[in-house]
Design goal:
Blueprint lengths: L20 H23 L9 H7 L2 H17 L11 H11 L2 H13 L5 E7 L5 E7 L10 E7 L6 H4 L3 H11 L2 H6 L4
Antiparallel strand pairs: 1-2, 1-3
Helix pairs in contact: 1-3, 2-3, 4-5, 5-7
Length: about 190
């Protein structure tokens, strides 16, 4: 099976000025393309050759995991944005209030977790089998899939994700993320 780039649900310039066309050209167009190409080359003739991206992430390690996870992570990340700021659907808002006290408390905790990732990594909103929402941060290509958790959305905090637009100001990038996030897409990922 050949893995392909996810199709963006918006034009390359649609997220500007919060995320520039130049950032998308490099981050989506070059970084993600490299992960997809590397993955396709690495899985040829292996037990992973005919698995879905999600299955590879759950079962692999080393270089195959890194490239599969980064391809999957970025697909979730880029396909979860909207050029028009969205409201949080009631079902997701209720769950955030239940598990974090308020939407604002959730955003604060998530932002603090994302800001606190040392070096390169990701911060995720995930859901366990009982429907409890949790914030999980990982270094490098990590994500909650190998732990059996369902991903609602994630924030890439590798420097290449924000350096063109925000230089070293990760906090400004995190603030912009909330304006770009398509909460409707996130709510559709809930299992419970």
């Amino acid at each position: 099976m050949t893995h392909n780039m996810p199709q963006l649900p918006y034009a390359m310039d649609a997220l500007a000025p919060l995320m520039s066309q130049e950032t998308l050209e490099y981050h989506y167009g070059k970084h993600l393309q490299t992960y997809v190409n590397n993955l396709n080359n690495l899985i040829k003739g292996t037990e992973f050759e005919n698995l879905t991206l999600e299955e590879i992430v759950k079962k692999s390690e080393g270089g195959i995991f890194n490239n599969a996870a980064q391809a999957w992570n970025h697909a979730v990340f880029f396909c979860g944005f909207s050029p028009v700021e969205k409201n949080i659907p009631a079902n997701l808002a209720e769950r955030l209030v239940r598990d974090f006290g308020s939407v604002e408390a959730f955003k604060e905790a998530f932002g603090k977790a994302a800001a606190g990732v040392f070096g390169s990594g990701w911060t995720w909103l995930a859901e366990d089998a009982e429907g409890k929402l949790m914030i999980k941060s990982y270094s490098n290509a990590g994500n909650p899939l190998p732990e059996g958790l369902n991903v609602i959305f994630g924030l890439d905090v590798w420097e290449h994700s924000y350096y063109i637009d925000y230089r070293n100001n990760r906090l400004a990038y995190i603030d912009a993320f909330w304006k770009l996030l398509d909460w409707e897409v996130a709510a559709k990922r809930l299992l419970k």
